Every structure is written in C-alpha cells, then in structure tokens.
Amino acid sequence: MTTVGILGGGQLARMMALAGAPLGLRFLVMDTAADACAGQFAPLLVGDYRDEAALAEFASKVDVATFDFENVPAESAEWLASRVPVFPNPRALAMAQDRLVEKSLFRDLGIPVGAFADVGSLDALRIEVDRLGGACILKTRRLGYDGKGQFRIKSPADVEAAWQALGAPAGTVGLIVEAFIPFERELSVVAVRGRDGEFRTWPLTENWHVDGVLSASLAPAQVDAALAHAAYAHARRLAESLDYVGVFALELFYRDGELLANEMAPRVHNSGHWTIEGAETSQFQNHLRAVLGLPLGETRVLGHACMLNWIGEMPDAAPVLHAEAPVGPWPNYGKEPRAGRKVGHATLRADDAAALAHALARVGVALGRQAQVAPVVARLTA
C-alpha cells in the first residue's frame, strides 16, 4: 500500500487524507504542532521542518511527499527531494514563497500583472508610492496569507504608518509594494497537471473576501467563454514553465475587461473546496492522482456550486437541514474556534443558477448570514 507524506497538517491535509482513502492510500502527516487537525485522520509526526532527523524519519516512512501549505522551507523540500519524490517540485514552492519572484515570473511569461516594486527602505517606499500613484498595498515578500503581512496605503500620507507596521521584517522576509487595483471581480483558476504533463482545469471560480479571508466561492463564474479561456491559458503557461505536478490555484483580478494575476498557491486551494461535491473529481483526489502518476479525473462541474467558508466558529447545521437546502456534508476541520480562523465550510449545489440562488437565500436566512450569501445571490440573479 502506497504511503503519501504531507508536510503541513492543516485542513487541506485532512481533506486530502479523506479523499485518498477510497484510492487505498495511507498517509503520514508532518507538522510542528501536536494538535494539527489532520492528525485526527492520519498518523502525525511532530517536528520542525528544518530538523534533518525529523525529515529523515518522515522520508523513511513515505513513498512520495507533497504539501498542504507553501511556507515549508524550500531548502527542506530540496533536502527531502533527494530522498523521495516530492511534488510539486521545490522550485515551484520556492517561487510561490516570494511575492517579488512570483510577480516577476508572471511578467516574464506575459501574464498581465499590476505594477509592483521591491522596497528595502522608507525612502524607497516613498519614491515607489509616488510612482505608483499613491494608492498601494505594502506586503511582506514572504510568509503572508489570508490578508496577513499587508498594509493598505490609501495615499502618500500613509507611508510612515505602513513602514511602522511592516518595516521591521524588510531585512529578513523583504517587502514588495503593489499598485492598488480597483478590481471588479476576484477570480481563480484551480488547475492540475500530472507527471506526464496532462493538464486540466476546473471551471473558473469567482470569489468574495471579507477582511482578506475568503468568504464564498461560486462555480462556474458568470463570465464569457473568452475570458475563462484566457485564464486557463495563463494557468497552463505557468504550470508548464515550472514543470509543475499537482493542483494549484492562480488568483486573478478582473478589471475593465482584463485579467491581472495576483498570486499563485502551489497546493490545493480554499476556492476549490466546492469541487468535493460540485465536480466530477475533487481537487484533493486529482492532486493525489497527479503526484502518484495516475491518470487525472474529469473536472467538469455538476451544475452550479457555491462554497461558504465558516470563519471563527462553526454555525449550527440544524437550521440548514430543516430548510431542506441542497447542501452537501458539513465539514468541520476539528479546530478550536478563534476569531479569523477557518474552521469549516459547506457547499451548496443545484442544477441551475436560479435554484442555487434560491437555496443560498434560504440558508442565509436560516443561519443569519444574509450578508455572506448576498453577493453570490446577486451574481446568480443578475
């Protein structure tokens, strides 16, 4: 029986292990935390990702290794790759860990991207904010996610406050300033590439965020076919340039008829959770198929699907079940409630947009979450 090793023991590893059970796979998860939630479903090895002894023990027990988050040290991934197959490859991981390197690659590949600049001092930040028109986002180059490690600069008057908030890490993780993009929509391509180069995408997904954290995802996105195909082409070009193997997400902004790349996530992605109930093959199973060298599964959507993230604490499922809404399983990640923390999600699926809009409206009322579902309902009924 094949054992898949996963570096990182969060909810993505947890759902990967659940998806792998029907394939007859075993798993070993490595995480720095003894209470990592994937450990409730797979054996857990607790250790630091830079500890060669822990990595050696991990490598000795797995046939192939992958990741559930992108901030595993790239040098640790390189060390591991000399002992067992590692997918995606450490080069792709290292690229996605550095926003400056990532944005530069997008630009080099001809994938449209907003203006950006590397900044290493307060004076450099002042210069670049003026050059970029005043409205910018200052970000750490490394270790930021879900809105963390970011500061919104609305005008040059905010530069000092931005530097006070994020200037300290400049010498260690680096800083990048990006022109603020007044986007009309946030979209993502969740795609998968196999060891043999086979490439597939799930339908383009539209996303809504609250305070930098994903709140809802809708698939397929209500966009014209030409725009969707352009997004798929960007994702394919990126995957082929990195010789990428596995699932990844390319996050995009839509503005004035144009797609602008925001960032790449080299792993299964929150905006792809709807694929568990809403697609022929989920992102989690296809990721496992890819890293094991198996044929990829079909990625077509089954009607229309919306994923709702539960942030902070799990809502009570009973009102939704009583409402007879077309909601699938009610995944609880087994994490302690905490403000801003992703603790679970739910996916609603229907055969047509009108039925999904109606179901979402009922769920919103049942849970007192009308504000969360409102933008999705508006999109479906426009």
Tell me the domain tally: 3
Q: What kind of oligomer do you see?
A: single chain
CATH superfamily membership of the largest domain, which one?
A: ATP-grasp fold, B domain
Q: Give the overall pLDDT as a whole number.
A: 94
The main sheet comes to: 8 strands, antiparallel
Per DSSP, what share of the residues sits in E-state strands of 2 or more residues?
A: 25-35%
Distance between the termini: 50 Å
**How many beta-strand segments?**
16
Element-by-element helix/strand order: EHEEHEHHHEHEEHEEEEEHEEHHEHEHH
Number of helices: 13
How does the overall form come out from the CA principal axes? Answer: globular
pLDDT < 50 runs, ≥5 residues: none
Structural class: alpha+beta
Helix share of residues? 25-40%
* The CATH top-level class label of the largest domain: Alpha Beta
- Radius of gyration using CA atoms only: 21 Å
CATH topology of the largest domain: D-amino Acid Aminotransferase, Chain A, domain 1
Could you say what the CATH architecture of the largest domain is? 2-Layer Sandwich
Explain how this protein is built.
By secondary structure, the chain is an alpha+beta fold. The protein has 3 domains: 3-86, Rossmann fold, CATH 3.40.50.20; 115-179, Dna Ligase, domain 1 (2-Layer Sandwich); 185-381, ATP-grasp fold, B domain (D-amino Acid Aminotransferase, Chain A, domain 1, 2-Layer Sandwich). The chain has 13 helices and 16 strands. Strand 1, helix 1 (11-20) and strand 2 form a beta-alpha-beta unit.
